Amino acid sequence: MLPAAIVARVAARTQQRYQVRFAWGSGGAARIATDVHLIVWIDVLPATAAGAVHGDRERQRALRAVTAQLPDGPEVVLGHLGNASAIAERVTRLQAERGDRCVVAIVAAGRHHAPGDDAAEAAGEAADVPDAPDFAVEDLLAAGAVVDALAAVGIDHTSPEAAAACAAYTGLRRAVKHLVSASEAAAALGPEAVHAALADGGELVTLRESTGRA
Fold it and tell me: How far apart are the C-alpha atoms of 183 and 9, rounded to whole Å?
């Protein structure tokens, strides 16, 4: 049996005591989402301009690849700036179905520099690995929007990490679209691709059904 101090440190690192959690990348998901009922994968802007087109094969292929890297069991939905309310509604339905609280892991995709990225190399950056994404302001704000929508329906037992993302979103709510359009990722995509990505509707997009019993 592990000492109590080690158990406490593990619980803190996995945000285990909280109903709403937040982390970055597939590595973060592996850390915080092993015992959750829903994973919200936040990915606002695609890696390429072609992926900005809704339903584009490249975009769908990338999302399937990411989903395969996430912990088995929980349902996985896609989150962006337009569908936070739909996600909150899904969580409330899951709670009603379970007759108990639904634990949610909100995971921001972040940015990855492809090998041979000239801009990254010029900045002295090494190519990222899948579980160590760069910070992406658009994903932080969208994650905060989901946390805010959950709080609005009474689901507010959030980790400090999730609360900080929420504060970023609520504090910058009026400037969100401008900030995303002026972000590093947006500059790499171009205005047309960014506009297409931000035009995503408010519907719930399920990337994977639950494969385990809650």
Answer: 35
